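Lecture notes, unit on protein representations.

Consider one protein chain, 318 amino acids long.
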Amino acid sequence: MPRVADPSRLQSLAGRTMGTIWSLRFDNPSMRSHDAVRAAVTDALDRVVAQMSTWEPASDISRYNAAAAGTRQALPAAFADVLACALYWAEASGGAIDPTVGPLVALWGFGAQAANDHRPPARAALAGARARTGWQRLAFDAADRHITQPGGLQLDLSGVAKGFAVDQVADALAAIGLQDFLVEVGGELRAAGRRPDGQPWRVRLDTPIDTLPPVTLTDLSIATSGDRWHAHEHAGRRWSHTIDPRSGKPASQALTSVTVLHAHCMHADALATALTVLGPSDGADFAARHDVAALFVCRTANAGHRAIATPAWTARVS
């Protein structure tokens, strides 16, 4: 029998997807069953996995990665939207985000095709992986949603797809009539409406700086990229899963994290990745030029941390 909770208080659901946790907090004045709400969430997430997960051999992205040179493949509309977003920010950032970075991610020990040996790769291996990347090589026809495999190119949309999944869940919840909720997938969040008590949604940033205030989200998304969560270490050297496609090496350790606010979580996710690669100086300049609300948490020479907020971040948070 479907379970119905008290409509006067905040309700919550959670589950697993994409190797991480999803969670939902929501107001439920119409007393929709939790089974129906959970089904809306999981159906939206499963569609993203079926299209864009490199861990699933039958996914659309895995079929493209395994295709022979010259193969032309039709893409679902959602896949095409995510790819278009990744390519937009790839061009805008000078390649700081690159949807073909998969071979480099694997070489440094991350992702579905990760190398088992978590040591820094040899120079020859690095050169070989770099030769198999390059967003400019993607033959993507956005108008009719087709993509052609030039030979050996490996798509990896992990820098965008999780944020897109959050957006898809938000759309699915709105479609069943929910108006007030906070949904999270692996640390990327999107808020709609308000809490049952009429207060806005507030989230606390996971950074080493304890004095940073919570962020208020009103019909807004937030995404964070950084090296505190996914990293490898060998012989005293530590590197994160965020790879700089321009050099083929992990992003600089000058940054602990970058957090971005945007109306759409897909764009917040992509921008957080790009800004992490660009670093605190170039990243802050890029964010200011593009009116991106971003907060950079940087390491300092004395082993402490400092925060750098863009003008758009300051305006939104205040």
